[in-house]
Amino acid sequence: MPLKWYTTVIDCADLHAQARWWAAVLDWQLIYEADDEAVIVPQHVEDRPLSAAEWLSVGPGLIFVRVPEGKTAKNRLHLDLAPHITDDRDALIESLLARGATRVDVGQDESMVSWSVLADPEGNEFCVLSARDRLLTSGHQGRRSSPRNLETKTHFLLRNRHIVQDRPPPSTAGPHVSAAVVSTELAAGLSSRSQVAGDC
Question: How many C-beta atoms surround the C-beta of residue 76 within 10 A?
Answer without folding.
Answer: 6
